[in-house]
Amino acid sequence: TNEQQLFIGNSLPVRLYDMFARITTGSATVFTNRGASGIDGLLATACGVAIAEAKPTTLIIGDISALHDLNSLAIARSVTSPLVIVILNNDGGNIFNLLPVPNEQLRSDYYRLSHGLEFGFGAAMFGLAYNQVDSLTDFIESYEYAMTYSGPSVIEVTVAQNQASEQITQVANWVKQS
Fold it and tell me: Would you say 87 and 157 are in contact if contact means Cβ atoms under 8 Å apart?
């Protein structure tokens, strides 16, 4: 079947999806999972969904969530249908830019968890196809290619640390003015 599956990670990805995605998903089935701390086990769950249904599956996950479940890339190796793991790497838990935190120093020291890491070596360690992109054009090209591949691949999207929160604020301000 041509039906696709979309698995949305917690924190910023699911909020962005909720804010900006179309109400109907067409032929895609959408999944999400709330771990004990919100982000644990997302890669493992997405791999289970992909294996159970054997349909093309896309996981959109944040960098902190991916780091918390990096060992589940070992499970991804057993997926035989297209599984595209899209990691949005904004160098930390920048959902906290949108949530009430007493001051910027506390936000930086205890909430964002900046790590300075990339996922290429992690993907290589598990023998997964990998590409890093930082533009929409490159992402579309990489994603379309990955969806033709029978098995897992990782696309790391490098995003500026404050990009999503600033754009959400701009949209909110635009809505308030309308």
Answer: yes
Which is more confident, 151 or 16? 151
Give the per-residue pLDDT at 1.
41
Q: Enter the tokens of residue 166.
A: 């600033």
Give alpha helix (H) positions in 34-146. Answer: 42-53, 63-68, 73-76, 104-106, 120-125, 136-146
Within 10 Å of residue 29's Cβ, how many Cβ atoms? Answer: 14
Q: Quick count: other Cβ atoms within 10 Å of Cβ 15?
A: 15
Q: What is the DSSP letter of 56?
A: -
Encode pLDDT of 94-147 as tens digits: 665 566 767 777 766 766 677 889 999 999 999 999 999 988 899 999 999 999
Q: Give the DSSP H/E element, type plus range, for residue 92.
A: none
pTM recorded for the entire structure: 0.79
Whether the Cβ atoms of residue 32 and residue 10 lie closer than 8 Å to each other: yes
**Integer-rounded Cα radius of gyration of the chain:** 16
> Under the phi-then-psi rule, with left for phi > 0, alpha for psi from -120 to 50, and beta for the rest, what region is 155?
beta
Q: State both tokens at 49.
A: 């969904």
